[in-house]
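Single-chain item
Fold in token form
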Amino acid sequence: MLLENKNAVVYGAAGAVGSAVARAFAREGAHVFLAGRTASTLEALAGEIRAAGGNADFVVVDALDEQSVESFVSSVAQRAGSIDISFNAIGLEDDQGQPLIEMTQQRFVLPVNIALTSHFYTANAATRHMAKNRSGVIMAITANAARTAQANMGGFGVACAAIEGFCRQLAAEVGRHGIRVVCLRSSGSPDAPGVSEVLNQHAANAGISRQEFETRFAASTLLKRLPLLAEVANVAVLMASDLASPITGAVANVTCGELVD
């Protein structure tokens, strides 16, 4: 197993990406600590992981509250002895489907503020504990909109670009402590409810059916399909594992070739 004896913290663990990553981490031997704002969904996921033979615990945590994050991370480190992986997959509460001139400034900047605030708190808290053991991996998830100009994305693309910029700077500062920083960039998984809703919105704006929009989108990729949640999670496992030990300050391209580096 690629993550045997690793302790992994996953924020936004009950969301589509977070839960897929948490399941994959646990499958590969990690003890996963699930963090989020809704106890019932976290408890259900923890139960599912345990039933499959994995190790999982959950704590209600507000990733936008510094003290909540610090308390959570300290308790995990004290209990588990180390924090080896920190993955932030919280939702950005972004609005898509309308042009910027029809948005309020508050709605536009909200996902940017959520992205930078949550990543600042969760990464800094993890760094303080990982540095003691001179090892660890801090991870994030963004989307194709970080690199491409697309209409009616609201603040989402800006937030994704901000996350990637933060990860690059963080990598430059924590590498000397043996900590790696890796971001995953997806083109969106159609089996994720949030992505499915966004595809519906953009299809409506384009005046075509959802199926036609998704077909055209998939046709723009080199593999002629979009990445599924399980595939994104598998890449997260690989990047978090020791097999990826020389990789830091990097964005892993999981767009099925929609973007080419």
The domain at 7-188+228-254 is CATH 3.40.50.720 (Rossmann fold).
